[in-house]
Amino acid sequence: MNREAYMRMAIAEAERAQQAGDVPVGAIVVCGGEVIAQAGNEREQTGDPTAHAEMLALRRAAKRLGRRRLDGCTLYVTLEPCPMCAGAIVMSGVDAVYYGAYDSRCGCAGSRYALTEDAAFGGAVPAHGGLLEAECASRLDAFFGARRERGERSAER
Quick check: is 13 catalytic? Predict the structure, then answer.
């Protein structure tokens, strides 16, 4: 499979998250050409503020591999990681992260700060943004637009 195919799988996870009432962000972890973990946001479902798609996918990948270091793996996520997720990405040791939509508000893989590539945090994980950006961004824009129309407070990712 190619990177776009993997991102489309992450988009499918984002769609499932949205159907469950969560912000539509999805992530998958690929290791050796095989998808070993996938997740969508579950913050609303679980009441867990750390249940971002990236965090869940990284946890599931570590459990599946039976190790905390995810070297040899690549993370695909539909939205640029926040500070919490960017830190987890660095600590996981994945080889790289590819994301779709940029997050100018709190993105820490290049937009606001490049935490994933800051060697001061134990190692650099290359981050590549803009993969199927329009598809990823349009889902988020529609989700938050609908919330604004209903007069709901803007949900954070």
Answer: no
pTM exceeding 0.85: yes
Tens digit of each residue's pLDDT, the chain (157 residues): 799 999 999 999 999 999 999 999 999 999 999 999 999 999 999 999 999 999 999 999 999 999 999 999 999 999 999 999 999 999 999 999 999 999 999 999 999 999 999 988 876 899 999 999 999 999 999 888 887 878 776 555 5
DSSP string across 49-91:
TT--HHHHHHHHHHHHHTSS--TTEEEEEEE---HHHHHHHHH
Q: Which one from 13, 54, 80, 117 is the annotated catalytic residue?
A: 54
